[in-house]
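Explain this record to help learners:
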Amino acid sequence: MAIRYELIKTCKQSGARLGKIHTPHGVIETPIFMPVGTQATVKAMTPEELLNMEAQIILSNTYHLYLRPGHQLIKKAGGLHKFMNWHKPILTDSGGFQVFSLGDLRKITEEGVEFRSHLDGSKHFISPEKAVEIQTALGSDIMMAFDECPPYPADKEYVKKSLERTTRWAKRCKEAHTNTENQGLFGIIQGGMFEDLRRQSAEELLELDFPGYAVGGLSVGEPKPIMYEVLDYTAPLMPKDKPRYLMGVGSPDALIEGVIRGIDMFDCVLPTRIGRNGTAMTSRGKVVIKNASHTEAFEPLDPECDCYTCKTYSKAYLRHLFKANEILGLRLMTTHNLHFLIKMMEEVRQAIREDRLLDYRKSFFEKYGYDL
């Protein structure tokens, strides 16, 4: 099999997992945060810069790459790794979330989803088989099953029908997935905010014996306490000998809380998106660099950070770049935010090794300004 999970240690204080995911393009140490490279690039970053900050795996987006430049072109180029010059592991999502977020531009049937491109309005159709075909052409190490992601809030009857369709689609994805030696296919547990439906989804998908499982349908607008509650009863349903992936989560508090609940993998556009808009994650909380208070702030963004941005530039200079609409400002803030989360997850792994993750959470939250 292309993907194999190795459990290294369980934290005695918190129950969090330390592990390794073995992939065709290298080993990933978990828990891990994955930077998002939606269109075969992590916005504003070169692959070399990502390597320097010790990113281990990145995520790319099936929907966007299917529309532009097209999966067949990427296949001709030698696959996504070669096309974008990233030779470590890549995970591709199925495109399901993007398609379902199109709202009136899409129509769901049992066969798949018909939708109009957000780029030019052209008509397209993605079925479970098509999602696997696209991801096979992309050549990612981990591909995701095509699922239906229900909105929040949604009534129980709708969510039940949705998760049952997700199971049927997962079976079709597994049947269509033939490149099992080079690519692992993960299933996605749905069920909204309903414990019995999450259990039903997990039981149905575990029968299909995927090499890894994701929790989908969270971080879609629900309050964080509800997300944590869902994780409390969903994570224990997932196999202990396979990777557990929480999709679309990237705030520092949610990452730490997710790890404590047994999650191994996370991804989110949050650090890059807020960085491009002038907000930094720091050890002392968020810094909005455009604020006038930073006009003559000649200290670094975060005195505890050793990223290129913090070692080289002041808050005053970064504020100047944003006020002058200089591209370098976006790059420097993105660099810092990604480095911050990657470094934080490294500290989380060390805390698990030393059986002190709850102590780490308490200290981190106090400094950042989160409530426990």
Notes: The chain has a mean pLDDT of 97. The first helix runs from residue 47 to 52. The longest strand covers residues 4-10. The chain has 15 helices and 16 strands.
